[in-house]
Amino acid sequence: MPYKSFGFTDEQVMMRDSVLGTLNRVLPEAKILDLEANSEYPAEAFQALAEAGWLSLPFEEGHGGAAASNKDLAVFIEALGYHHAGITSAFMTTVIYGGLHLQFHGNEWMKRELLPKLIAGKLRMAVGYSEPSGGSDAAAILTRAKRDGGDYVITGQKVFITNAHVADYLVITAKTDPEAGHKGLSLFLLDTKLPGVTIRNLNPMGRRTSLPNEVFLDDVRVPASHLIGEENRGWPLLMRGLNMERMLLAAASAGQMIKIIEIAKDWATQRKAFGQTITQFQSIAHKFADMAMMTETARLHTFSVADMLDAGEDPVLETSIAKTVATEHNMTVADMGVQIMGGAGYMDGRMSQLYRDARVGPIGGGSSEIMRTVIAKRMGVI
Ligand SMILES: Cc1cc2nc3c(=O)[nH]c(=O)nc-3n(C[C@H](O)[C@H](O)[C@H](O)COP(=O)(O)OP(=O)(O)OC[C@H]3O[C@@H](n4cnc5c(N)ncnc54)[C@H](O)[C@@H]3O)c2cc1C
């Protein structure tokens, strides 16, 4: 990955090289294509990340973690994104989305019992917020949790839940006070093996090694001790992780763009047309320049917000810009990659996979439309 480092430390460069070494060994290109074709979770690669200690990265030392900085995490996720979007999603759902809820908002049992298992790769997680009635309006969910003695009884439906089919636990949202808008929202830790939980794979355009799922909750009895935080206080807990999530989604897209350029360059510098290599055509060479500019712009935003987060700032505007710029550039760069490769780019293979993988970026984790509204609000124009 011979790309510019934005002030990366030697340790960060070593981390990047080390994780890529592991992934090249356990998840080579041929295996990625095979797993994608079979919609199979990258279990072996995930386990290898656990064995190498990488699942401990964001957690506090007191919980067995490595206390990585935001910049460390951005460097790490960029490397995962560069290698394969599906292994990035596998890491994100368990470690970032699920694990950080346990660390920041979980009770003692969740921290002492579950976090060490998660770090060891023995417990997988996912998060279920979106519902068929809507994902952007996360407070308008219909899933209900009613207190009944020592339990909550939960009924409802979640949709698009990445890796729910391989998760031991989901963090889900449910309404404990349906009349109170976002002030009636609570978070629960849901054991996926409980009676009344049904999980069904969906059929997505890309990232098929980390499938999205429908989750049906039919009178599921969840112990009251599995409430995360306090009843009706779920909304601020959801908001807490957004800056980091957006920064890491930007980092993942930046990694994917670097890979797209590499594949396109390997191909285009060999490919001949009209007696010359196609990179000699200015219209092709300029596409590479455009791809490099978009990639470096995304990286600049990503590592800049990582630095801001590490400095203790609350850069909502900047993380929203980073996420939008990186995911939208990723789509454009993937489109150019396919175009440079001509018919070969359109056929099933790594480039067409990267093209399909890129499409979800501006939809998931806060759509581009929602991000623009956040940015405009922070600018004071709304
Ligand atoms: C592959 C994949 C994986 C996912 N994984 C997860 C997961 O693990 N967990 C989870 O909870 N969710 C997950 N999601 C759901 C994702 O977060 C939602 O798809 C996303 O929030 C958008 O919600 P929606 O699809 O219901 O679209 P809607 O909210 O119905 O939006 C439809 C369109 O309207 C636009 N829109 C909505 N509101 C506004 C507004 N106020 N102003 C302007 N435009 C607006 C949107 O931007 C979008 O273009 C995943 C989605 C995908 C595709």
What features would you describe in this structure?
This protein is of the alpha+beta class and 382 residues long. The protein folds into 3 domains: 10-123, Butyryl-Coa Dehydrogenase, subunit A, domain 1, CATH 1.10.540; 127-231, Beta Barrel (Butyryl-CoA Dehydrogenase, subunit A, domain 2); 241-379, Butyryl-CoA Dehydrogenase, subunit A, domain 3 (Up-down Bundle). The chain is 51% helix and 14% strand. The protein contains 13 helices and 10 strands. It has helices at residues 10-26, 29-37, 43-51, 70-83, 85-105, 108-119, 234-240, 242-268, 282-310, 316-341, 343-346, 350-358, 368-379; strands spanning 125-128, 144-148, 151-158, 169-175, 185-191, 197-201, 213-223, 227-228, 272-273, 276-277. It has a 4-stranded mixed β-sheet with strand order 1-4-5-8, covered by helices on one side. Strand 2 and strand 3 (151-158) form a beta hairpin. Helix 1 runs parallel beside helix 4. It is globular. The mean pLDDT is 97. The site of flavin-adenine dinucleotide has 20 residues, from strand 1 and helix 13. Flavin-adenine dinucleotide (FAD) binds at residues 126-130, 134-136, 160-162, 204, 212, 360, 363-364, 367, 369-370, 373.
List the helices and strands and how they pair.
Blueprint (H helix, E strand, L loop, with lengths): L9 H17 L2 H9 L5 H9 L18 H14 L1 H21 L2 H12 L5 E4 L15 E5 L2 E8 L10 E7 L9 E7 L5 E5 L11 E11 L3 E2 L5 H7 L1 H27 L3 E2 L2 E2 L4 H29 L5 H26 L1 H4 L3 H9 L9 H12 L3
Parallel strand pairs: 1-4
Antiparallel strand pairs: 2-3, 3-7, 4-5, 5-8, 6-7, 9-10
The structure holds flavin-adenine dinucleotide.
The site of flavin-adenine dinucleotide (FAD) has 20 residues, from strand 1 and helix 13.
